Amino acid sequence: MAQTKAYVLVEVATGHIPAAVAGLREIPGLVSVDSVMGPFDVLVVLVDDLAAAGNVVAEHVHPVSGVVRTVTCLVIG
């Protein structure tokens, strides 16, 4: 399958950012995990095929303690 790059914007519960970032960094296959300022708290970059990207978010990102919600943005160009 073709490679897909995705940015995952992660909202984290108040007071849980350091623990959530640490938990997200344990997930294999993520290119980077960074705390950011703005409406979301963490930016995750992953590269894989589209089906795998959805599975990583649903099965690995959402269960991380403190994660409230995510928005996945697929790179199209």
**CATH topology tier name:** Alpha-Beta Plaits
Q: Considering the protein shown, what is the CATH homologous superfamily?
A: Lrp/AsnC effector binding domain/regulation of amino acid metabolism (RAM) domain
Number of helices: 2
- Helix/sheet category: alpha+beta
List how many beta strands DSSP finds.
Answer: 4
Could you describe the 3D structure shown?
A 4-stranded antiparallel sheet has the order 2-3-1-4. The mean pLDDT is 91. The radius of gyration is 12 Å and the shape is globular. It has a single domain (4-74), classed as Lrp/AsnC effector binding domain/regulation of amino acid metabolism (RAM) domain (Alpha-Beta Plaits), CATH 3.30.70. Helices cover 27% and strands 39% of the residues. By secondary structure, the protein is an alpha+beta fold. It has 2 helices and 4 strands. The protein has helices at residues 17-25, 50-61, and strands at 4-12, 30-35, 42-48, 67-74.
Record keyword descriptors for this entry.
77 residues; alpha+beta; Alpha-Beta Plaits; four-stranded antiparallel sheet; 2 helices; 27% helix
Please render the helix and strand layout as text.
Blueprint: E1 4-12, H1 17-25, E2 30-35, E3 42-48, H2 50-61, E4 67-74
Antiparallel strand pairs: 1-3, 1-4, 2-3
Brief write-up:
By secondary structure, the chain is an alpha+beta fold. It is built from two helices and four strands, in the order βαββαβ. It has a single domain, classed as Alpha-Beta Plaits (2-Layer Sandwich), CATH 3.30.70.920.
